[in-house]
Specification:
Blueprint lengths: L1 E4 L5 H13 L3 E7 L2 E7 L7 H5 L4 E5 L19 E3 L2 E3 L3 E7 L6 H14 L3 E3 L17 H14 L2 E5 L6 H7 L2 E4 L7 H8 L5 E4 L6 H13 L5 E5 L17 H8 L4 E3 L1 H5 L5 H10 L4 E5 L17 H17 L3 E2 L8
Parallel strand pairs: 7-8, 7-14, 7-15, 8-9, 9-10, 10-11, 11-12, 12-13, 13-14
Antiparallel strand pairs: 1-3, 1-4, 2-3, 5-6
Helix pairs in contact: 3-4, 3-11, 6-7, 10-11
Bound molecules: phosphoenolpyruvate (PEP) and manganese (II) ion.
Length: about 350
């Protein structure tokens, strides 16, 4: 519950209101919003105090507290947030298409892949240099060498680079090379990492944890916003359910549900939800139809030899075919896929 105080309310009157609430055994948070003083009241029985608070002369209005994630909420900002990444806008009418391998493996891998991704409509390249793997014996990524290969690909093919950061100690390094820092599902509630990406200026792609609720995802985004970075892109990537046929269960409803609650753009990752390339296109179409602002998709030039997530990676040809239909679905729901300008650098 929030008591909004009258403009020009004195410090003494504020202190009296705070004392009044604390004497009732409730907690108080005093904040400024648009130049107005607001007294948040929390605790058991807070509502019972509403009438008494409203009757105080310095209180203009008492209203129920809004969402616990204030900065990223629709109440705070109704306009959709557009996150600009170089020439690409995430959250505008045009869908943001991010594609690339699960992990960066070699220069040859990117050379065999990236031109075709761009030709098919991707404007941003994904690829992990630091990989969060379930097994310590699996390929962990090329680290700094992988970041350098991504930066080379950006220069050669004119794509922006999206890559994952695993820990707060790597944020400065990854931000040197990446255009967008990805916080993966396993790290969605790594609060130190959220604060660290919130303290630097690059946009953050925040993936939903595999066991996280929509509210928890929004609270994780709030950590980043509260640390000072409003350039946040959310990503639904499937949640863990009882169903073993797919790797995760894509929560398509999360897209419109998030859009009701937040002004932030929402992408969908059909690859980690599907777990098998055969299912990826259908999930991508569903995502676009449901109002996603774009897709992040795994594509590999030779998926059977991929060092991670080959089973769910599309071939470049499969990606091209999928994008042809994505364009049609986009048109049906009033969106577009903007093509990359021919690039010469
Ligand atoms: C990834 O994008 O390669 C990845 C590890 O995704 P997630 O964090 O969604 O599992
Ligand atoms: Mn992957």
């Amino acid at each position: 519950m929030i008591a909004v105080l009258r403009a020009g309310c004195t410090t003494r009157a504020k202190a009296e209101i705070v004392r009044f609430v604390e004497q009732a055994g409730l907690r108080v948070v005093v904040s400024e919003n648009d130049g107005r003083c607001e007294v948040g009241v929390a605790g058991e029985g807070a509502e019972a105090l509403a009438a008494a608070l409203a009757a105080l002369p310095e209180v203009e209005e008492v209203r129920p507290a809004g969402a616990p994630y204030r900065l990223v909420s629709r109440e705070h900002r109704d306009e959709p947030t557009r996150v600009k990444v170089d020439g690409v806008v995430v959250g505008g009418r045009a869908l943001a298409i991010i594609a690339g391998p699960c992990a960066v493996e070699s220069r040859e891998q990117l050379a065999a892949l990236v031109p075709s991704l761009v030709a098919s409509g991707a404007r941003m390249l994904r690829g992990g240099a630091f990989k969060p793997r379930s097994s310590p014996y699996s390929f962990q990524g090329l680290g700094r060498a992988g970041l350098e290969l991504l930066a080379e690909a950006r220069a050669a093919y004119g794509v922006s680079v999206v890559t994952e950061v695993l820990g707060p100690e790597d944020v400065a390094l990854v931000a040197e090379y990446a255009d967008v820092l990805q916080v993966g599902a396993r790290n969605m509630q790594n609060f130190r990492l959220l604060a660290a990406v919130g303290e630097q200026p690059r946009p953050v792609l925040l993936k939903r944890g595999m066991m996280a609720t929509i509210e928890e995802l929004l609270l994780a985004a709030e950590y980043i916003a509260a640390a000072g970075n409003p350039r946040i892109i959310l990503c639904e990537r499937g949640i863990r359910t009882f169903e073993p046929t797919t790797r995760n269960t894509l929560d398509v409803a999360a897209v419109p549900a998030l859009k009701e609650r937040t002004h932030l753009p929402v992408l969908v990752d059909p690859s980690h939800a599907a777990g098998r390339r055969e299912l990826v296109p259908a999930l991508a179409y569903a995502a676009v139809a449901a109002g996603a602002d774009g897709l992040i998709v795994e594509v590999h030039p030779d998926p059977d030899r991929a060092m991670s997530d080959g089973r769910q990676s599309l071939t470049p040809e499969g990606f091209r075919a999928m994008m042809d239909v994505v364009r049609q679905v986009a048109t049906a729901v009033g969106r577009t896929v903007e093509e990359a300008q021919p690039h010469a650098r």
